[in-house]
Amino acid sequence: MAAGPDDSEKSPSRAGLRWLGHATTLITDRDTHVLTDPVLTPRVAHLRRRRGLPPTGPRVLNPDVVLLSHLHADHTHLPSLRLIDEEAPIVVPRGAPDAVPALRALGHRLIEVRAGDTVGIGGVSIRAVPAAHDGRRWRRGPRSTAALGYLVTGDKRTYFAGDTDLYPDLGDWVTDVDLALLPVGGWGPTLGEGHMDPYRAVQAAHTVAAKHSVPIHYGTLWPIGMDSVRPGMFFGPGAEFVRMARRENLDVCELAPGEQLADQFGA
Predict the structure, then answer these.
(1) Which one of 37, 73, 95, 267 is least enclosed by Cβ atoms within 10 Å?
(2) All domains of the chain, ordered by start, with CATH?
(3) Separation in Å, CA 103 to CA 22, 73, 107, 148, 234
């Protein structure tokens, strides 16, 4: 069940989720607040936030930890990172500061991980898992930094996929999760290699044995001046994922940017 943004002012459940648009989510578990791939501004380079306002509310700017899945600017957004409380640690793929030297200004806050590494923050453990996606900052840059997903475990097990396509051993890395946050689209009129569409996201929900799933990475950012170009690629992926998933008896929920998943992931 979805609740409006104002409900975030109430006392939080021990486990909860707010989708803040694109790949930005706020996961709460055991009173630990985990912010993923923060984009907190009206635009990112040539992309503008087309739906919803920049995220606000409790713990958006002062989470207990930030997770960055990979180095693309719509996931590692330096202006947004500068808005976040300077005490919050930031988990990044190993090699990220070498690939994006501006990250070094964040200094001691950076925790570099590779797939298989686990970090304990507050009441949760965070395990990095692989992602089938180009992890480079620039299209022609060196392939020195891998994209990651993360498994956040406290009272619940939440899989934040970041940006990824299906890969053969996904079910070996991630299984029996209470909540899967799955990318179903992108930020433009085409969807290239290394992305899931709604159909593959449904397959991913089956693969990781998700009790509940929420579509992310769609319906937020769009190139300036291209609002009329293939609008279905902007608005449609979340609803299409929900339709497909429910035909297969999966428990799913489409949120609008700023909405939260209530009832402790529906448990």
Answers:
(1) 267
(2) 2-266 (3.60.15.10)
(3) 21, 12, 8, 17, 30
Q: Are 217 and 72 contacting, i.e. CB atoms less than 8 angstroms apart? A: no
Q: How many whole angstroms separate alpha carbon 227 and alpha carbon 230?
A: 8
Are 218 and 182 in contact, with CB atoms under 8 Å apart? no
- The predicted model scores a pTM of 0.91
Average pLDDT over residues 251-262: 92
Report the 10 Å Cβ neighbour count for 68: 26
Which secondary-structure segment (H or E) carries 232? helix 232-247
Rounded to the nearest angstrom, the gap between the alpha carbon of residue 161 and the centroid of all alpha carbons in its chain is 6
**Taking residues 110-132, what's their average pLDDT?**
98
- E strands within 50-168? 65-67, 90-93, 110-113, 118-121, 124-130, 148-153, 157-160
